[in-house]
Amino acid sequence: MPAATTETSIDFADLPRPLAKPFYIGTQLVDPPILQAPMAGFTNYAFRQIVREFGGAGLLATEMVNARGFVWMDEHEAEHPDRLWGVAAEARPLAVQIWDNEPETLAKVGHRLATEYQVSVVDINFGCPVRQVTQRAHSGSYLLRFPELMGQIIERVVAACAPTPVTAKIRLGCTRDQINAIDVAQVVEGAGASALTVHGRTAADMFTGEADWDRISSIKPHLKRIPLIGNGDLDSAEKVVNAFKRYDVDGVMIARAALNKPWLYAQAAAAVRGEPIPPDPTLPEQKELMLHHYQLVCERFGEEKASVLMRKYACCYAQGRPGAREFRKYVATISTPQEFFDVVERYFPL
């Protein structure tokens, strides 16, 4: 006769308690409630793969895709934009961010992304502050001046993408004297978007000063059904914890700070779960990670082009480390694999 088993008593008070719950964007679960921001020139397939290897991001995103350029390539039977590199086959969930100011064009591209690429979320950029997008193309944060047009765009894209959820990313307004995020948020929700992300600066601020999380949080009571995601200045797990503790947001989006710390999402996720924060990789491990990143870029673009592209990524990996300035000086000139490996071996901070 087998020995009697003894049940172990669990004290639930001793278990870690998460600071924030997973949430849904439409039918897409975001767990943990930490999102990787789309960043032009950086969040390509190689970067996303590295983030996935560490874990911690409940939703990843591509670089923003120019909808008009996508349509032109399609009509001329050209290869689709490099910003869609890897999207068709990579793991989900995955959001693709698109930008333009024409409802029909955005709807056409959104439909292709939802049906052909079967992405998890289609995000519309109403927050980019760079001149090429705002002044030249009258898109991105320029459209915050025209909430009615934003609503028309969202309605068209939502209809074209259904049932794939559509989201919007905005800033607080165009300038400090023209903060209209609450009004815009209500338009976004009324037009059928499934979530709203707000960067806590105005377009005129660019990336200067501090993100205003109080203003982000003030939007939440004006939303009836969709989640609010806050973005800006989250450069540590502790700041992510603070954001969830102090502000009325459903999720957070980590952006530039992760370019030199792609493991930040995993650290933030652990902190939000109430678990110990994993340490940073050692400098030798970070060096190997950078070489892994380089190999991923080479597989797509070939060694020659990848060596040039890797200059900016390599500079990110060295940022904030002792000797980073010396490393950046030399890596900024490399154009061949041998030059890259030589510079890494001689100058990468260790």
From TrEMBL:
Protein family: Belongs to the dus family.
Phylogenetic classification of the source organism: Bacteria, Pseudomonadati, Planctomycetota, Planctomycetia, Pirellulales
KW Membrane (keyword) present: no
Catalytic site positions: C128 (proton donor)
PANTHER family linked to this entry: TRNA-DIHYDROURIDINE(47) SYNTHASE [NAD(P)(+)]-LIKE (PTHR45846)
GO MF entries: flavin adenine dinucleotide binding; tRNA binding; tRNA dihydrouridine synthase activity
Enzyme Commission number(s): 1.3.1.-
Catalyses which reaction(s): a 5,6-dihydrouridine in tRNA + NADP(+) = a uridine in tRNA + NADPH + H(+); a 5,6-dihydrouridine in tRNA + NAD(+) = a uridine in tRNA + NADH + H(+)
Cofactor(s) annotated in UniProt: FMN
Chain positions recorded as FMN binding sites: P38, M39, A40, Q97, K169, H199, A255, R256
Keyword Oxidoreductase: yes
Protein name: tRNA-dihydrouridine synthase
